[in-house]
Give the backbone structure.
Amino acid sequence: MKNIVYILLLVLVLSSCKKEESKKEVKETSFEKPTNALNNLKYNNKIDFYCQMDIVKYGVSDTVTYKGKLYGFCSKMCKDEFLKTPEKYLEKK
């Protein structure tokens, strides 16, 4: 008789654990475009020339005006690399 009671208790404990697991919700993460005044400007490029990051989707943190055109970059490092040989990057565009 004791064995039956232990088995019933075990079944109850295991079934209650499964119910708690099913109650857990999975939250989806979504990407929100960063709020930055630089993201509101119009750039002559959509992709960072140096690292190839999509600046339209991920935002801009640095800019440069070269030959009268505004270019956006994801970082100061990428902008500095572009400025070393800008014509090389503009040829590929």
User: Anything to note?
Assistant: The helical segments are 2-23, 55-58, 76-84, 86-92. The two ends are 82 Å apart (CA to CA). DSSP finds four helices and two strands in the chain. The first helix runs from residue 2 to 23.
